[in-house]
Design a protein that fits this description.
Largest sheet: none
Strand content: under 5%
Distance between the termini: 28 Å
Structural class: mainly alpha
Oligomer: single chain
Number of strands: 0
């Protein structure tokens, strides 16, 4: 059932990204951070979901006029310098063969970071990105917090299998960084119940 639901979300989302690449960028962020396919049990578990969305987004980006130069501001320039430095140091690494595999993963992520920077053009789009990014991580904090309370802390809370958040310490670091983002998003809400829900989410994380 999970596989079918995810399939019915990913495929239309990828097709939508061909016309609206910003949608694809948000889909890629959600899938790459939360790894929902790793919580399925069937054909979607090992499916190249992130790659499918990334390809659709890149195709949509090439055909779209809704983009801007990503190299605006010092942070992006420093990111480009860091990427170049990582490439140089990888060549001279003690174990170049193993290092190339990790470099490939990092470069794919950095490429999509630049794509996202090209597609975020308004405050509204920035806020959508902040919500998607934050909730993709906070999901595990909320779910894990409820699980920890219900079991008295008898078990570790881990992220999705095969992801960067799988190990409990990695997930903990991600959740610590998510709490300030939850607080920021809370300040944008107006209704009391929404603010209380965000407070509960921060406590559980």
């Amino acid at each position: 059932m999970r596989d079918l639901v995810l399939f019915l979300i990913v495929v239309p989302g990828g097709l939508m990204a061909l016309r609206h690449p910003f949608v694809g960028a948000m889909m890629w962020t959600w899938i790459s951070i939360m790894n929902p396919h790793r919580m399925a049990y069937g054909f979607m578990f090992d499916a190249p979901v992130a790659m499918f969305i990334a390809v659709c987004t890149l195709v949509g980006l090439l055909a779209s006029k809704e983009k801007r130069n990503p190299f605006i501001g010092a942070p992006v320039t420093w990111l480009a310098i860091l990427i170049g430095w990582m490439c140089i140091t990888t060549v001279f690494a003690f174990d170049t063969a193993s290092s190339l595999g990790m470099l490939e993963k990092v470069l794919k992520i950095d490429l999509m970071v630049l794509v996202i920077l090209m597609l975020i053009r308004t405050k509204r789009e920035m806020m959508v990105f902040a919500w998607v990014l934050t909730l993709s991580v906070a999901f595990f904090g909320i779910k894990g917090g409820i699980f920890t309370l219900s079991t008295g802390g008898a078990f570790h809370v881990r992220g999705p299998s095969g992801s960067y958040l799988e190990e409990n310490n990695s997930l903990a670091v991600a959740l610590i960084m998510t709490v300030p983002m939850l607080r920021f998003l809370q300040t944008t809400l107006e209704k009391a119940w929404q603010k209380h829900a965000m407070t509960a989410a921060m406590v559980l994380c």
